[in-house]
Specification:
- There is one protein chain.
- The chain is built from seven helices and 16 strands.
- The protein is α/β, with parallel strands linked by helices.
- The strands form two sheets. A twelve-stranded mixed beta sheet has the order 1-2-4-3-5-8-6-7-9-16-14-11, sandwiched between helices. A four-stranded antiparallel beta sheet has the order 13-12-10-15, with no helix packed on it.
- A hairpin with a 5-residue loop joins β1 and β2.
- α1 packs across α7.
- The relative contact order is 0.13.
- Zinc ion binds next to loops.
- Zinc ion (ZN) binds next to loops.
C-alpha cells in the first residue's frame, strides 16, 4: 500500500542580467488516492512572510497517507522581493511591472515578472483550485478575498475560516480605480477568470511571523483541502461577515505626522464619521487633518507608520453585505 509521496524540485523562474538563474523550490505532495490538484503560493510580495511560514508548518502537518489528489506549494514565489523584504522589485529589473501581482497569467516572452508568473502559471493550468497567501501592512485584520459572484471561490473562502470575507468586484462590475490600478492582473483574478476557484488569504501584516495568524493559516489550508475532498473530515460551519473592499478607504488630505485615534482597533465596527486619527504639522504642531471614516463598516486596516504623505491610505473600512453571516449575497451571485 502506498503512503503518498513528497518531492521538492528547484525550478528556474527567470534569468538575471548577470546570467544568474533566479530559482525557487516547488513542493509536490501526491496522495495515495486520486483527487483534485490544489496549487498554493506565498510571498509574491516578499515581505509578506506569514504565508511562507504557513507552508513550512503545513508541510510538517499534512497527513500524506490520507491525501486524495495533489498539492503543489511554492513558499517563495518571488525571491527578488523576498530578499529585499519588499513589496515590489526594483525598477532596474522590471520597470514595466514592478509589482508581480499585476501581471498574471504572465508572458514567457515579456518582462521579468511576466516571465516568472508564466512559469508559475503552468501549475495553475492543471489546478482545480488555487490559494495565494498574502499579508497586508501594519495593522491589518486577517481576512480572505475572493471574486464577487464566483460561487466556487466563495466556498473556499468560507472554508478557510477567517471571520471577514471580502468580495471584490472584477472586470465590468469593478470601479474605474480597479482598472486603473491594474487589478485584473492579480493572480486570484486571473485564476478566477480562467475558471479556477481562487482565494487570497491576507494573514494580518508583513515582516513578522505572527503565531496565531500562522496557525489559523495552517488550519485554513487543511480545511480548504477538506472542502475539496482531498482530506477526510468535515468543514465546520463558522461565523463570518461578508463585506466589500476598496470603497471605505480613509486617505490623508495633508502630509505630516499621523497619530491614530487611541483605542481604535482593527476588527471593530465603526460608524460613518468615526475619528481615525489626526495629522499634525511636525514643525508648527498645527493639526492639518482630522481623519474620519465616510462609511460604516468593519475597520480592517489602520496605518501604523506615522510619517505620511498626502494621498496615503490611513485606514480601510469594509462595507458589510451580511453582518449576521447569512447567505444573502447568494441572491446577487450570477455564476
Ligand atoms: Zn501581497
Amino acid at each position: 500500500m502506498t503512503t503518498g509521496t513528497h518531492t521538492a524540485t528547484e525550478i528556474r523562474l527567470a534569468t538575471l542580467p548577470s546570467g544568474v538563474s533566479l530559482t525557487t523550490t516547488v513542493h509536490t505532495y501526491e496522495g495515495p488516492e486520486d483527487g483534485p490538484t490544489l496549487y498554493i503560493q506565498a510571498a509574491q510580495h516578499g515581505r509578506e512572510v506569514n504565508g511562507t511560514e504557513v507552508l513550512r508548518r503545513f508541510h510538517g502537518r499534512l497527513p500524506l497517507e490520507s491525501l486524495s489528489g495533489t498539492v503543489i506549494a511554492v513558499p517563495v514565489a518571488n525571491p527578488l522581493t523576498f530578499d529585499r523584504v519588499s513589496y515590489t522589485t526594483p525598477e532596474v529589473l522590471d520597470s514595466a511591472n514592478p509589482n508581480m501581482n499585476r501581471v498574471w497569467p504572465g508572458d514567457e516572452t515579456g518582462s521579468l515578472h511576466q516571465r516568472m508568473a508564466a512559469t508559475c502559471w503552468r501549475y495553475v493550468e492543471r489546478a482545480d483550485a488555487v490559494v495565494d497567501l498574502h499579508t497586508g501592512s501594519p495593522d491589518m485584520l486577517p481576512h480572505v478575498v475572493y471574486r464577487e459572484g464566483d460561487r466556487a471561490s466563495r466556498r473556499l473562502a468560507k472554508a478557510f475560516g477567517a471571520e471577514l470575507l471580502l468580495a471584490e468586484p472584477a472586470h465590468d462590475e469593478a470601479a474605474d480605480e480597479w482598472h486603473q490600478r491594474g487589478f485584473s492582473g492579480k493572480f486570484r483574478v486571473a485564476a478566477s477568470q480562467a475558471g479556477v476557484p481562487a482565494i487570497t488569504p491576507e494573514l494580518a501584516h508583513n515582516k513578522q511571523i505572527l503565531e496565531d495568524v500562522v496557525e489559523d493559516g495552517v488550519d485554513g489550508l487543511c480545511t480548504v483541502l477538506r472542502a475539496l475532498g482531498m482530506l477526510p473530515g468535515d468543514v465546520p460551519e463558522r461565523e463570518h461577515t461578508t463585506a466589500r473592499n476598496h470603497l471605505g478607504r480613509v486617505i490623508a488630505t495633508q502630509s505630516g505626522l499621523f497619530r491614530a485615534a487611541p483605542g481604535l482597533r482593527v476588527g471593530q465596527y465603526v460608524s460613518s464619521g468615526t475619528e481615525v486619527g489626526s495629522i499634525y504639522d511636525p514643525t508648527t504642531y498645527e493639526c492639518v487633518h482630522d481623519a474620519v471614516t465616510d462609511h460604516e463598516g468593519i475597520l480592517y486596516a489602520l496605518r501604523k507608520e506615522a510619517t505620511v504623505t498626502a494621498g496615503a491610505k490611513l485606514a480601510s473600512v469594509a462595507l458589510p453585505r451580511d453582518r449576521d453571516g447569512s447567505e444573502r449575497e447568494h441572491e446577487r451571485e450570477r455564476e
